[in-house]
Amino acid sequence: MTDFFPDIPSIPFEGSDSTNPLSFRHYDAEAVVEGRTMRDHLRFACAFWHTMRNDLSDPFGSGTAVMPWDDGSSSIENIERRINAFFEFLDKMSIDHYCFHDRDVAPEADTIDETNRILDQAVGILERRQDELGKQLLWGTACLFDHPRYVHGAATSTSVDVFAHAAGQVRRAIDATHHLGGAGYVFWGGREGYSSLINTDMPRERAQLARFLEMAVDYRRRIGFEGRFYIEPKPKEPTTHQYDFDVATCLNFLREFDLLDEFMLNIETNHATLAAHSMEHELRSAAAAGVLGSIDANMGHPHLGWDTDHFPTDLALAVRVMKVVLELDGLGQGGLNFDAKRRRGSFEPVDLFHAHIAGMDTFARGLKIAAAIRSDRRLDDAIQSRYRSWDSKLGDSIQSGQCTLEDLERHASQIGEPIMESGREEMLASIFNDFLR
Amino acid sequence: MTDFFPDIPSIPFEGSDSTNPLSFRHYDAEAVVEGRTMRDHLRFACAFWHTMRNDLSDPFGSGTAVMPWDDGSSSIENIERRINAFFEFLDKMSIDHYCFHDRDVAPEADTIDETNRILDQAVGILERRQDELGKQLLWGTACLFDHPRYVHGAATSTSVDVFAHAAGQVRRAIDATHHLGGAGYVFWGGREGYSSLINTDMPRERAQLARFLEMAVDYRRRIGFEGRFYIEPKPKEPTTHQYDFDVATCLNFLREFDLLDEFMLNIETNHATLAAHSMEHELRSAAAAGVLGSIDANMGHPHLGWDTDHFPTDLALAVRVMKVVLELDGLGQGGLNFDAKRRRGSFEPVDLFHAHIAGMDTFARGLKIAAAIRSDRRLDDAIQSRYRSWDSKLGDSIQSGQCTLEDLERHASQIGEPIMESGREEMLASIFNDFLR
Amino acid sequence: MTDFFPDIPSIPFEGSDSTNPLSFRHYDAEAVVEGRTMRDHLRFACAFWHTMRNDLSDPFGSGTAVMPWDDGSSSIENIERRINAFFEFLDKMSIDHYCFHDRDVAPEADTIDETNRILDQAVGILERRQDELGKQLLWGTACLFDHPRYVHGAATSTSVDVFAHAAGQVRRAIDATHHLGGAGYVFWGGREGYSSLINTDMPRERAQLARFLEMAVDYRRRIGFEGRFYIEPKPKEPTTHQYDFDVATCLNFLREFDLLDEFMLNIETNHATLAAHSMEHELRSAAAAGVLGSIDANMGHPHLGWDTDHFPTDLALAVRVMKVVLELDGLGQGGLNFDAKRRRGSFEPVDLFHAHIAGMDTFARGLKIAAAIRSDRRLDDAIQSRYRSWDSKLGDSIQSGQCTLEDLERHASQIGEPIMESGREEMLASIFNDFLR
Amino acid sequence: MTDFFPDIPSIPFEGSDSTNPLSFRHYDAEAVVEGRTMRDHLRFACAFWHTMRNDLSDPFGSGTAVMPWDDGSSSIENIERRINAFFEFLDKMSIDHYCFHDRDVAPEADTIDETNRILDQAVGILERRQDELGKQLLWGTACLFDHPRYVHGAATSTSVDVFAHAAGQVRRAIDATHHLGGAGYVFWGGREGYSSLINTDMPRERAQLARFLEMAVDYRRRIGFEGRFYIEPKPKEPTTHQYDFDVATCLNFLREFDLLDEFMLNIETNHATLAAHSMEHELRSAAAAGVLGSIDANMGHPHLGWDTDHFPTDLALAVRVMKVVLELDGLGQGGLNFDAKRRRGSFEPVDLFHAHIAGMDTFARGLKIAAAIRSDRRLDDAIQSRYRSWDSKLGDSIQSGQCTLEDLERHASQIGEPIMESGREEMLASIFNDFLR
User: What is the ipTM of this complex?
Assistant: First the structure.
């Protein structure tokens, strides 16, 4: 076993009274909730890009992260050290899954062939480590936004040659994901959007994007990749307007181009809130359409207008997320990926542990509380009861399409003013709060 | 002719050097632009609710508007005076179209029958006045949000009886619109949304809404109403989350419930910006999907988070709107409805004139400038030229679906690094500005 | 005793396991925390305007609130019934304090004299009821924003006559507050701001406001009113820009016009967040300047851009607020006023109870948790320890003004690169969460 | 003369009908407006950091800017080439002033002494070039935010040693500015703010910042630097909350620590809008307090929540800015610094020219239009006239402090209801628009 975090032990579960910051107070992997272990419910994943490659630089400053294992080079030795440190981290944290971008593990070289060769080597290292430690790739993806060639987008580039480059890169990233037994592959929008409409043909670019995804679907079929394909809503940043703005926009796009059977959604909290939705709204919208596939578990800051990717420490939020997941009977092949980064001031290696503990404990509590709310049933019953007037002959007749406006006008005229009932929003919020303990 | 605005003459066109505030400096109804009169391009409409019924109250204060013609009662005499004042206003302003809510002209009475009787009378008065003055109803609608019974929504109410009331009301509003020869009918979302997910079954409510719209489509067919049906995107207010959030959300809804052939969109600037989109984005999104039907021409304030319904005085915005309209070869049966209200401090009757002049002149300039930009072609050519690499054998092969990821990878490998070109955003913005004169 | 809420008993404390929604699960008035009863720490107040006069209308709809005690008239009998219902509510809720606007209890009549006569009568009724039930007026205020005469502001009106009206009204409101033994008087900005700079002389209006406040200070001295004077930060709504934008803006104003010794601040959560600050930021800013006087305990919605005045049910927020209050050793004469309204859908009388229970229980838990955090000391110690390098000769020399840039340059050159420490933000957030139970 | 932009000539003024994108259509340096040349009114400055050092990278991607003169090294030859390219750019653009950060021209070396030696060399090169070409330093500053040591702030760092480093760096940056005859020195907040209050002692940090500024004032006195000292409001980014939030916050800080006589403000449009203010509001607030010193002329995007630093192309905005500047009789030693960057897609060297032309032409038009509005007087007269009731005996008596609340109540009672006048906001907006040509 490697030892890049020599002073940090495997993180134990110590229970809610522990004051040891390097312990789980709530995440007890084998504890059973609603007939399944926490491990199986939560399917935590760690993101290689944030945990290993994010140096905590920001638009106003150089990186601060202390990474003694990283010499900054693109040598295969350095690549291997990063991977080894990553798996040591996963192991000590009891995190079962991971996610990665192709360029995270294989920086771009001078030629495509050389880049692909390095990628193959990196994939080999990943494979060995995941097999040794029993870890699984939750999803892979391609980085189609960092390189200057993608300045005007990848699939939506003004240049057909850039589209071709992106296509080749995605092919290799799907191959890598397939080889590693990945449970999914994410097409995050990256720079698929526009900076300004003054120089953009939006319908053309959306059609290019659809064509690109169709080719990927065709490829998946041919190679027999069984993982899910995801697209990921995000409203803005880096572009002014991302084509995958939110869940509804993604659904509209998938319906328009007849791709709804081929893709599910990977939904991120901070993207939801940047689009002025609650995370619960986005999750329920996707779940209702049958496309809630996986979750990027982070959060934003209510007063900051950019993607802050905070670690998720909002307990009420975690309850709401886990309640949707439990109602769905789990995310299946999906999981909870911490697409989250430490604050720039948390630059020591141990802060990686603190940050992930914070997120995991928050979601473990969220799971337990969501299960308690479901078991109690007061909140779910309150919703159902509100619509009970629809469980009637009239309701049936409307829902089955056997009613006209005239029929209903007649009914209204007969009954006169309907008797209205309070929605009891504050009472329900208070009951919800009673479970936060 | 009535005379509710005795000191105000019909507003003349006096040209851009006039300093007479009660003149048009730009809107010259019969002036021809791109082969059509300004009147025909712009199809201005005035909203009865803002112009006649908005007393400029706000959540912190009583109404300030001075309306000498209105005694505050629901008597038929008062209803007639309001309508007469309205048409005098349209006439003096050379505005050809109008829009109204049923409850604007016929306040709710004690029984449905009585309410409908008053509505019929009001429609008779509207009919006489529009025929006398040659005005046209751009669209009608029903007010499904003011009455306490609609507190939990109308079509999306928890109560089936409220749904029935709404159905009856809509039937009568469609009848009224049909009778008046209206060019369209709008289903604005009103309270179709939720205050909180803690007491809401969102999928159920969306299905109710779809069923409601299907019944209206069925009714339209049966009575032979030829006007367009519109839904109107709005993200929030009065509810926390409106189901018709934005254009993409509306499109997704229409596709999901197979209603895309039956509805177009009525798009409002202030709703677009509350949803964090530019108006141009929303218009182009709708136009590309073939559903850009009509426009609510107002604007919001960039630092205020509610629907302020300012009169549109942003010249660059008007240029962008009119450029989309010209590209579409006009809005057809649709038009530009000033869904705008004076600020609370502009409470004198003459301010109605000032406000509409401001909006009409802004859009008249917008029209002229948009036509000049189109004639010049530099901006359109710049966009088209950016995608010219797609006009190639490779581009064709991709677009026609004859290419695989592997083919493209081969191509990318052969050509090496693509040559990139600047998007020239600042240069194009500067050229755009040169037209603002 | 009156009986306007006949089916609702006095709300008992039943402890955290109770499922009775009409019970306190956390607010136990006589329970002692840090040596003082909950009652004394929290000093809850109920707002007459929201609880008795808010009919839950909004800009899109008529009122929904069921208020059987209110016939809608301005008769003295109706005024008395409202007051009686209010005090019955306070009594059953064990709320010790209340706040009111002059026009809440005494609607404006035809003449100033008549209005003042009604106000005197209403004050007499308030006095009797508060004395009977042992309730106290936390603060009074004047409604300088509802009447059309205040359309352009009150103290900042363009009209000197409106300024005079406002002055007279404030005089009477201060008298009423003084007579009732009020612990404070609030000058909320109302319409003191602007709709647009295009017709506003901002420096002139700010000077008018200062003069107005000086006159009130002079008046307070003369009549011997011992209550605190508060101004209340709010960034916008109803005006586009309120002159009392946030805490810093208020402090700047008070310093500029030499009023800092005369006023404290009444800080509202929803106003803080509309100004893009956290409530904790505003509280700490005011506390550091010695002007944290009282709190309007509500909350907004992160995705809505207007003043929603939700009842406060965010537990973490309540902890942060109460921690500041405990550090200050209490608010003195100030208190926690629920400037909060039920959602429009919660229109039944019992919802007033549910809503206030939700807020009171949230703050009671906030108090207990804040005290536990203080007793534990880990979080406070972490902050203090971060600055320990300043507890040094160099730190002293800087703080006492005995150091120059050159001295420090020399020091920097000698020590070389400073050793940096992580800020541990995620670890501390996780510890904070551990207390939320 | 160097030749880094060989294909680009000096930009000529060609008048408003020119279609040459590499010409000024409005900026005619020697044209006279209100008795002064455009050059003297506008005092344009170019920012070294954006124009020479910004590679157009963003949080999601590597730099795209093509900079053939820059080999990426910190060699003195490379530093000189950057400076030479910069001055060639200034010369061809007819921009008279520039601004720079110390680290722009002198990247940090291994030791403080070595860094300072490189800075001295760079300053020598700047001095030669500015003297040869007749350019002036508008202001200098120190980069106290890029280096990891400033992760927790500079003057507000938790570490006294970091404070010392910052002090030494500022001393040298002031020296460099003084040596170059700079007209000002800016203390932009950088990381002076907090990421979270959970680990921050805000009052302590604000006091540190004040102490730091006092030391700089003391130093300025001792060396006889005559340039202005500026602080620069910004609400957030990079920190969650910057201590210099907005103009009012800066004024409050300067008053609290008795620094108001020593500092003016450098106000940036994009910072104003991120703080939810209009730029005009911030400018007028500063002007009224006598501290409007200089302007960072850029703009943001209304739907993006971060500092986008767009080049300013909003004509109405430029009119409003220049109207304030004309009312102030100019900015004195201050100027209009384009703290603006090209979009990432505008990566060619010629885009630097396009972008600055766009900004300069916009402000030249803004100047001409603002002067026309002032000469016309309709808008200014409208404001003044609104307050005319204050030009009365009663108004004088109030303003001079000889009136009591009782006096005013008597007056109000005598006059009865005041006669109210419309604020005419829409009419004035329409007149404003008439000037946009």
Answer: 0.97
CA distance D57 to chain A (A): 8
Query: What backbone phi and psi angles, to 5 degrees, belong to B157?
Result: -65, 150
C182 lies in the same domain as C77? yes
C-alpha dist (Å) from residue D361 to D5, D354, D357, D368: 21, 10, 6, 11
pLDDT tens by residue, D369-421: 999 999 999 999 999 999 999 999 999 999 999 999 999 999 999 999 999 99
Answer whether residue B24 is part of any domain: no
Each residue of A313-339: pLDDT tens digit? 999 999 999 999 999 999 999 999 999
Total number of domains in chain A = 2
Residue range of the domain that includes A196: 32-376
CB B167 within 8 A of CB B317: no
Binary contact (D302, B273; C-beta < 8 A) = yes
Alpha carbon distance A82, A69 (integer Å)? 7
Residue D186 phi, psi dihedral angles, 5° rounding: -105, 135
DSSP string, D305-336: BS---B----HHHHHHHHHHHHHTT--TT--E
**Residue A37 near residue A96, CB atoms below 8 Å:** no
> Tokens 């025909």 correspond to what residue?
B40
Which residues are CB-contacts of D395 (< 8 A; sequence separation ≥ 6)? C160, D389
Question: For B389, which of A161, A398, A401 is closest by C-beta distance?
Answer: A161
User: b/e for C319-348, b at 16 or more Cβ within 10 A?
Assistant: bbbbbbbbebebbebbbbbbbbbbbbbbbb
Is the alpha carbon torsion for B169, B170, B176, B179 positive or negative?
Answer: negative
User: In this complex, do B303 and D276 lie within 8 Å of one another by their Cβ atoms?
Assistant: yes
Q: Within a domain: residue D313?
A: yes
Distance to chain D for B214, nearest Cα, Å: 35
| Rounded distance between C-alpha atoms, residue B259 and residue D333, angstroms | 64
Q: Is A20 among the domain residues? A: no
CATH of the domain at C227: 3.20.20.150
Q: Is residue B273 part of a domain?
A: yes
Question: A432 with B197: CB under 8 angstroms?
Answer: no
CA-to-CA dists, residue B371 to A202, B35, B283, angstroms = 21, 11, 17
Are D222 and D358 found together in one domain? yes
Contacts of B82 (CB under 8 A, 6+ apart): B52, B53, B69, B70, B105
Cβ neighbours of D246 in C, within 8 Å: 248-249
D194 and D287 both lie in a single domain: yes
Do A71 and A152 sit in the same domain of this protein? yes
E-assigned strand segments in C76-224: 97-101, 136-141, 184-188, 193-194
**Helices (H), ranges, D314-392:** 315-327, 349-376, 378-386
Which residue is it, tokens 């008249």? B364
Digit-coded pLDDT (tens) for A108-122: 999 999 999 999 999
Question: To which residue do tokens 């390189």 refer?
Answer: A147
- Using one digit for the tens of pLDDT, what is the confidence trace for B54-79? 999 999 999 999 999 999 999 999 99
Q: What is the dihedral of CA C338, C343, C346, C348, to 10 degrees?
A: 50
- Contact list in A for residue C436 (CB cut-off 8 A) is 315, 436-437
Give yes or no for a contact between B269 and B298, defined as CB atoms under 8 angstroms apart.
yes
The verdict on D294 and D409 lying in the same domain is no
* Closest Cα in chain C, distance from residue D256 (Å): 8
The answer to whether residue A104 is catalytic is: yes
SS3 B214: helix
Cis peptide before B9 (omega within 30 of 0): no
Instruction: Assess whether D306 and D342 both reside in one domain.
Output: yes
Report the length, in residues, of chain D: 437
The closest alpha carbon to C234, from C183, C181, C190, C200, belongs to C190
